[in-house]
Design brief:
122 residues, rod-shaped, Pantoate--beta-alanine Ligase, Chain: A,domain 2
């Protein structure tokens, strides 16, 4: 009678330990997947914001004053100001930018557009 009780207890304990290990590994893999997805989305937002900034600078070069840049990948919110002497301060972020950052660009436009500062802010 004692041997059967010991065998059943051992099987229950081993099963519980294996179950705890399996659950822990599952949670760790889910966390790794979420981290990888967040990094991918952040990179996509950063690429979109770079594209919006470059598109805005091209439009600024051709003497247009855009309020928003619409690209096939997404839209960007742009705020800009000029001092009237050809110096522009441009703030860019993408819509729904949970993962994105903000850009502050300082540019000068005479005969061409010269970027004097390009900073990424939170």
């Amino acid at each position: 009678m004692q041997k059967g009780y010991l065998a059943i207890s051992s099987i229950i304990i081993i099963t519980a330990v294996v179950f705890v290990i399996a659950v822990t590994v599952s949670y760790l893999s889910i966390g790794e997947g979420q981290t990888a997805l967040s990094l991918t989305k952040a990179e996509q937002k950063l690429n979109l914001q770079d594209s919006c900034a470059e598109e805005l600078l091209l439009r600024l070069r051709s003497n247009t004053n855009p309020v928003a840049v619409n690209l096939p990948e997404g839209d960007c919110n742009i705020l800009w100001s000029s001092d009237g002497a050809g110096n522009y301060t441009i703030y860019i972020n993408s819509f729904g930018s949970t993962y994105g950052k903000y850009f502050t660009i300082l540019a000068n436009r005479d005969y061409s557009v010269t970027v004097t500062s390009w900073q990424q802010t939170n």
